[in-house]
Amino acid sequence: VCDRLETALADAAYVAALSGRPEPGRPVLDVREMAAELATLPAEQGACLVFGPEAHGLGHDELALCGRTARIPSDPRQPSLNLSHAVMVAAHEVFRALQGRPPGGPARASQAEKLAFLELWRDGLRAAAAMPRGDERVFEDWQRLFGRLDLTPHELGLFRHLAHRLRRSEPR
Q1: Residue 103 CB: number of other CB atoms within 10 A?
Q2: Could you tell me which of 21, 40, 103, 149 has the fewest CB atoms within 10 Å of its CB?
Q3: DSSP of 119-167, one letter per residue?
């Protein structure tokens, strides 16, 4: 049990929110595509599927924390599913995708590593005058982009190096 979503997602290498709520500018995977992506993770790395409460689903801030958004196709006249049914459908698709998967690929950066990097990136963008202060909506685009990338710890290190260099730059 975690009191914050960030804490629950920290060790995950793959995070997907399941939501029927449209988010402009945010790519949405079919639940089967999501399951196929998840199945490429090395067996020792964790994944989190995030479902919202039945009454109102996931909020904008919660969706922003998740690297991907997936949708279970349904009739437009009944676009949302009962929570237990949505969990069952998603779990079944992941189960199917995991059948016969090849042995592990490269390790991926965890959600906690990505979130720590994003703080550096935000500071670097501000130092380089590439992001207006107080406009977090602009930064959400960066957050969504890096959330979708399947970066190895080494690749994330390359971006961390760039973020450190940006932090030392002077605005022009």
Answers
A1: 6
A2: 103
A3: HHHHHHHHHTT-S-TT-HHHHHHHHHHHHH----HHHHHHHHHHHHHHH
Placement of tokens 């945010």 in the chain:
26
| Structure tokens that stand for 33 in this block | 């595509």
Q: pLDDT digit string (tens) for 115-165?
A: 899 999 998 888 888 887 767 777 888 888 888 888 999 999 999 999 999
Give the pLDDT confidence of 85-106 residue by residue, as tens digits.
999 999 999 999 999 776 667 8
Phi-psi region of 134 (alpha: psi -120 to 50; beta: other; left: phi over 0): left
Collapsing DSSP to helix, strand or coil, 5 comes out as: helix
- Note if the pTM is more than 0.70: yes
What is the b/e burial string over 6-33, where b = at least 16 CB atoms within 10 angstroms of the residue's CB? eebbbebbbbbbbbbbebeebebbebbb
Maximum CA pair distance of the chain? 54
Distinct helix (H) and strand (E) counts, the chain: 7, 4
Report yes or no: 42 and 79 within 8 Å, Cβ to Cβ. Answer: no
